[in-house]
Structure formats: structure tokens, C-alpha cells
Write a structure and sequence with these properties.
CATH class of the largest domain in chain B: Mainly Beta
CATH class of chain A: Mainly Alpha
Number of domains of chain B: 2
Structural class of chain B: alpha+beta
Strand content of chain B: 25-35%
CATH architecture of chain A: Up-down Bundle
Oligomer: heterodimer
Strand order of the largest sheet of chain B: 1-7-6-3-4
Order of helices and strands of chain B: EEEEEEEH
Largest sheet of chain A: none
Number of domains of chain A: 1
Number of helices of chain A: 22
CATH superfamily of chain A: Sodium/glucose cotransporter
Number of strands of chain A: 0
Distance between the termini of chain A: 48 Å
Largest sheet of chain B: 5 strands, mixed
Structural class of chain A: mainly alpha
Number of helices of chain B: 1
CATH topology of chain A: Sodium/glucose cotransporter
CATH architecture of the largest domain in chain B: Sandwich
Distance between the termini of chain B: 74 Å
Shape of chain A: globular
CATH superfamily of the largest domain in chain B: Immunoglobulins
Radius of gyration of chain A: 22 Å
CATH topology of the largest domain in chain B: Immunoglobulin-like
Helix content of chain B: 25-40%
Number of strands of chain B: 7
Shape of chain B: elongated
Radius of gyration of chain B: 27 Å
Amino acid sequence: MNGAHETAVLSPQIGWFLLAILGVLWVILGVLWGKKAKNMDGYMVAGRNVGLALGAATAMATWVTSNTTMLAPQFALELGVWGMLAYSTACFGLFLFAPMARRIRRLMPNGLTSGDFIRLRYGRPTWVVFLAISLTYSFAWLVTMAMAGGLLMNAVAGIPFAWGMTVILLVCVLYTLFGGLYAVIGTDFVQSIIILIGVVFVGAVIYQRIDFDVTYATVVAEQPAMLYVLLPAAIIAFFNNMLFGFGEVFHNNVWWSRAFAMRKGVPAKAYMLGGLFWLPIPIAVGYVALSSDVLGINLPRPDMLGPLAAAEVLGAAGAVVIFVVLFCSLASSIDSLLAATSDLLTEDIYRKAIHPSATEGNVRTASIAIIIGLGFLTWLTCMLNPGTLAQVLFASGPLVGSAIWPVAAGLFWRRSNPAGAFAAMVLGSACGLYAYFTIGWYSGALVGAAVSMVITLGAIVLAPRDFDWKSLNESNEELRRGTIR
Amino acid sequence: MADGVDVERIDSNAPHIILTWSISEEDERDPAAFSYRLERAASPDFSDSRMLYEGRDRASFRAGLAEGSYFYRVRATDEAGNAGVWSRPLHLEVAYQSMRLALSLFAVGAVVFLATLVLIIAGARKDRCEAVEQEEAT
């Protein structure tokens, strides 16, 4: 993995220096913000009082992951202009989640996790399938992010992959451990400002350096497929990526925990703004991918284009900027995933399934152990070099695609059927995985979502079930006692 | 080429490929001491070859490939400027997936997207009404 690339823009000494400064800064900020968390409600959902500025910033920063900065250029490289547009459709996930978040906040004022919703709405069998899907996806996302950290530091500063990946993971584990969601949202706010300033700066310099006419002529001559309107893989990937984005956002506790954490009236606006701020970023980095041949960049791996192109265009000073921006984009997502996934494991498995009478102290101890364990497991998987970022992430596409309709229909339609939701997730995942392996990685989420939709609708038509929305509102007392319905 | 194996034909339905190469075990102790030249041609005799990359990396991702045949070869040069022999060529044959499959899946995706959009927009509208009723009741 790290042996193929031999040229870095920054020296390892500068890389380590930047890494040390950023690492210490985030840990200190995490500890300071974490002091606000006086109980588990504060630790897990930031006191349910997050305002619009922090809410929009955390949505945008979390969605600007390694997947935006490093996978979007890979999409453009592999699938051309269609790929660039396909990646940008992921913002629709945030746009459509905006009204869902408003309803979630209204129906579940005391909710803690997306698992709570599925358990209360559909019962335990569906809840178990949902947890398996959600945890698999969250883990794949975490692994891609940690891998991206290692690749970034190797590409820009020549820091060995294993060391770079280990340090960024360690920093995020530490500040999430100390600060919970307060620290995550607080650091996300600072990180989102750094990301926006950095992207505008890099974009302006690249716009001045790259001639559009030369880029077009070079792509036509050397990489003609990038401009094909009827490139089959790209045509398939367009809706696949959009639906993958829907599945990621609709089901994952990263987004649900923020909906629970925002104060009344904020969630819908925050998710709309977060999506709008995010939208230009994949277009900008995708354009850089189309210009890679003009820039004369050799890519040992397609997912290394982002940092290599920025470093090539901006030189050493620019490499420092891109190092900081990418570190922030990675950290803002790793911390969110660590916090949200550990909440899911702590609440849905430890408190609801293993130890219903756990005290707040027990839960906090379990949460700490889970964050550390999750970090270690991620590190171990990265060390085994599981594949490129796209291969790892999109393997979970069929699973999250199959969750779109059970979640959305369950949230808005009273007659949504628990057995239908169960079958939709199981069969949707199975068919999506079959497509992933037989057609390609760019088809799994699409097939999973389509099969799941047909089954969900079929079950509602054939066996509609009534549901009382009030039963989604678990009281604080029930939550405290861990009562399971 | 392709980790130093003999002539190999690869069939791909994607417009891209990652080429990797290695050198002899003896030289592997310091691979960065060598520079490499990667070439591509449309014919197996490389009469129309052109250089794609020259440098110390030992892999190269090639994208935007149109349907057709491509031949690749690579050669190492040591620090003293002594060039080694060319690798055995790699033959890549690119043939995209069927357009019928692509357009069918595109249509399926469009239907799922529109149905999801309708579900959420209609649901959100109803949710607003319910919220107003709830507030009036309290």
C-alpha cells in the first residue's frame, strides 16, 4: 500500500509537526467541551440544545469526509463527468433527511439512537437485522476514513501509512472519549470553518492554474471515456450513488443522534444548510480529477488523487493547507462515527439487550470500553489492507440501500408492516450484494434499494398494520430504567 | 508488469486499470533507487508506443480508456543510468457493459428516487399539519 508511492511534497518532519499540533489541539478542545457533559444525556446528545450554526456546521463537516475529498476525485477518474455529478448527488441525502429530522425530533423527543426507532416501530427481529446493517456500514465507513488518513499522510508528507493511520485514529478516540457529542459537535464547528476556508483557497489557486481549454483537449485526446455521456458503468452509478447517500443518511445514528441533539425547530434547517455547503466540494475536487493528466500526476492508487493534485498545484505551502484541511475533514467524520456507533452499541446492545438495569455509571464505563474497542478494531482492519476506499465503502452499499424504505416508510406511514420491513432489509441486502459481485460495485445500493422498496410497498398493500405514533415517545423514566418494549 | 508475471491478457468492462510492477528480489531491498518508465501502445510490437510515466513510483492508475486493445510495458533504470530490459507486455482489452443493462438499471434507479421523493415530500406535508394540530391541542 505505501510502497507504491515514492514522492511526497512535504518532509516527514513537517508532517509529524503538523500532526502533533493538530492532534494536541483537538484533544484539548475535546476535553474542554466535554466538561459540559454532566450526564449521559449530555454525553450522548449534547443536552438536546444544539442551535442552527453548530447544527449546520456539524452536518456539513461530517458529510465532508475522506469520502468527499478522496473518493469524489476517484469517482470522476473512474466514471468521468457522470461520476463527478453522481458523487455530488449525495447532498440529496441531507436535503431529504431534513424533513425526516423534524419529524424524528417531534415524535421522539427523548430518543437516543436510530435503533430506538426501529425497535419501537417494528419490534425486535427487525431491530436485530437493522443493527447488523448499521454496525457493518458504520464500521466500513470508519475503516475507509482511517485508511484515508494513512494514505493522505503518506502521499503528502511521506509518513508511513501505518503510522499516519494510527495517529489520526488515536487522536479521534481520545477526544471523543473525553468529550462525547459536545466535543464532537464543537470540534466539527471549528473543523467546518477550516475546511470551507481551505477549499475556497485551494479552489481559487487551482482555477487560476488550470486552463479549461487545455484540460478539455487533453481529456478528449488521452482519456476520452471521461467525457462519454453513454458510459455504461457511469450511467448505472448515477442513481446508485444517490441511493447509497440516502441509505447512509436515513439509517445511520450519526445523523439521528444530531437530530436528537438539536433544539426544536433547528434540525430541518440545519440539514438543508449542511447539504448546501457540502454541494460544491465534490464538484470542485471532481474537476481536479479531470485535470490530473494535464497536471502530469502519476497516481499509484485512484484514491490518492485529492492530496497529490493539491500538492502538485499548490507546492509545499499549499500542501500544508491541504494537509490541515484533510486532517480536519477526516477527524470530523471519525469522531462522529465513533460517538454515534458507540452510542448504538451502548444503548441498543449493552443497555437494552445485555444489562437493562445498568446505572448511568455502568453505561458510561461501557461507552468508554466500546469507543476504545471500536478504535482498536478499526486499526486492526486497516493494518490488513482490505482494498481501495471505494471497494471497502461500497461493499456496504447494498445493506444501507435496503434500509431506505423501511426507515422512511416507517417514519411517515402508519400502515408500514414490521414483517415487510424485516424482509425488505434481508432480501434487499441479499439481492444488492449479488448485484455488487456480478455487475459491479456501482450497482449494489441501487438494486438493494429497489428490491427493498418493492417488498415494503407489497407488504403494506397485502398486510397493512396500524401503528400508534405515541408509542415512539419513550419516557425518560423508561429510558432510565432501560424498559424494553 | 502486473507483479512481474509473464504475458497476461486482462479483459475489463471498466474504463480504468491499476498497473503495478516490481523488480527482482535482489534489487527489492532499495526499490526507490530505481526509476521506471511506463509505456503504452495500441500494437503488441510497441511501434506506436508513448511514455505514460517516468519516475520512482511502482504503480500507475490509468483512467478514461475507450473500448479497444492496449499494450503496456515498463523498464527500470538504476541511479547510474543503466536501463534494464523491458517487461513482457500486458494486453488489456476494454469492452464496456451492455447499454441495455445500464439503461435498465438507470430507469430502476430513477423510479426508486422519484418514489422516495414523493414519500418524503408528502409525508413532510402531513407532518406539518399534524404538528400544527398537536400545538393547537396543547
